[in-house]
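Retry 2 of 3 after timeout on previous attempt. Resubmitting structure tokens to design endpoint.
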């Protein structure tokens, strides 16, 4: 159905890269129906809020957005989807102003639901589902059908495009609600992945980031399925493919085959985001993580043997129930040995419905804040040390479409996920260019365009403009 008078839509996305991908798919489906996208700061006919429920604070943030939109635009249609909509549709429906609560299963039909202004067919299903979640957690393992009707051709507001190849998780870490919300592993078919990658390449994206809830488990649920390594190799061989990056992978899913492939393929970024969460074995066991600190470091050393100066980024949780000063010191020591180029440090937050919420010996908020501050200082030191390895070297930088707001220089990320600022013409935007690193500070890396055949071509284009 094409609307005669275009209605407007706006999007608010909370949470992870997978949510960002799913918002893009919803965006394209609404635009195809004749809607016109505007900024969420403007008064839209329809707002779509893609929610996160990883922490209680995430739920509160989602509720706050809903209430703000209702107050600012009382006559707008407010559509709520995402993980919070899965976990507690009942609570969301009680918020004044919510028109539709859409489950993951119906995200691909969201455009039809709102375009026809139907009552949300998903609400009663979501309501029953949320009651089951809250009564059965943490032992229930919600099974869901594989749903892969969402697809994208662009990635609004990004130079890089995310490509979702997997959904769901079966790790059941003791602090995490996501497996109960998204269900177990569901892997996307290769043909669908290939078709989407080709569309993104055709539309000018020079980097594709493979993403999923539990990316390393791709294919695990299907006997004789191709693996993540197979997907990477096939994608790297597609005509016109710029470069590929993995969004995240668990350390015990980093195989020798994966390491060899990254070492061999120049268009697969030598950047591994490997969540740590804790560097102490006692805490890792309480978290229900499936590795030890020794195994973690051993895998990183194996990667370094095959790949020159690989970039390791990570997630670390501080203040998990039962974490003592000694446990925290073990985490700090492991981080120093790992030599991370970037760390995401976050405090433990009680997530109702998970085993960790009922554990004893919760850390006082003041102690958690102190540990976060200490670890952040170590993270800054590690990042600076890693970046100094590249002084006077050449980095391949994917130039962002927006200049750095403080310096007005071009900026972008290297294959090892180092942000670099340099002078150059606008014609370089959305291209991968060689940049020689000239200056490294604790907060900023500066370079200059390295003259070669590629960069000369863009200068010639700029001169004609």
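Retry 2 succeeded. Sequence:
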């Amino acid at each position: 159905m094409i609307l005669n008078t275009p209605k407007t839509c706006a999007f608010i996305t909370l949470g992870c890269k997978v949510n960002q991908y799913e918002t893009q798919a919803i965006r394209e489906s609404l635009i195809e129906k004749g809607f016109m996208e505007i900024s969420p700061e403007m008064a839209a006919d329809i707002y779509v809020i893609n929610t996160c429920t990883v922490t209680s604070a995430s739920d509160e943030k989602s509720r706050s957005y809903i209430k703000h939109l209702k107050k600012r635009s009382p006559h707008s249609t407010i559509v709520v989807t995402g993980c919070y909509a899965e976990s507690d549709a009942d609570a969301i429906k009680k918020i004044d102003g919510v028109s539709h609560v859409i489950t993951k299963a119906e995200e691909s039909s969201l455009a039809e639901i709102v375009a026809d202004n139907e009552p949300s067919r998903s609400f009663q299903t979501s309501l029953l589902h949320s009651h089951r979640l809250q009564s059965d957690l943490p032992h229930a393992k919600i099974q869901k059908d594989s749903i892969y009707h969402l697809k994208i051709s662009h990635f609004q507001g990004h130079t890089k495009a995310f490509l979702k190849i997997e959904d769901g998780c079966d790790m059941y870490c003791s602090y995490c609600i996501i497996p109960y919300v998204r269900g177990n592993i569901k892997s996307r078919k290769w043909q669908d992945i290939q078709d989407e990658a080709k569309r993104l390449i055709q539309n000018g994206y020079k980097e594709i980031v493979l993403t999923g809830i539990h990316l390393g488990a791709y294919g695990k649920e299907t006997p004789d399925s191709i693996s993540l390594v197979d997907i990477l190799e096939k994608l790297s061989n597609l005509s016109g493919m710029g470069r590929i990056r993995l969004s995240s992978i668990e350390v015990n899913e980093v195989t020798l085959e994966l390491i060899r492939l990254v070492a061999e393929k120049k268009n697969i970024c030598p950047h591994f985001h490997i969540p740590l969460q804790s560097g102490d074995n006692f805490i890792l066991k309480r978290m229900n993580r499936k590795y030890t600190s020794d195994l973690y470091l051993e895998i990183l050393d194996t990667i370094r043997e095959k790949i020159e100066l690989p970039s390791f980024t990570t997630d670390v949780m501080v203040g998990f129930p039962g974490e003592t000063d000694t446990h925290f010191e073990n985490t700090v020591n492991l981080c120093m040995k790992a030599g991370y180029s970037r760390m995401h440090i976050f405090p433990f937050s009680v997530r109702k419905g998970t085993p960790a919420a009922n554990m004893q010996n919760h850390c006082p908020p003041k102690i958690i804040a102190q540990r976060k501050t200490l670890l952040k200082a170590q993270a800054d030191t590690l990042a600076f040390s890693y970046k100094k390895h590249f002084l006077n070297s050449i980095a391949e930088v994917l130039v962002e479409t927006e200049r750095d707001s403080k310096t007005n220089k071009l900026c972008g990320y290297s294959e090892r996920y180092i942000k670099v600022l340099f002078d150059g013409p606008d014609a370089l935007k959305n291209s991968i260019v060689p940049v020689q690193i000239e200056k490294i500070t604790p907060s900023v890396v500066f370079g200059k365009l390295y003259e070669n055949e590629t960069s000369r071509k863009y200068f010639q284009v700029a001169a004609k403009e």
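Attempt log closed. The chain has four domains: 1-136, 143-269, 270-390, 391-464.
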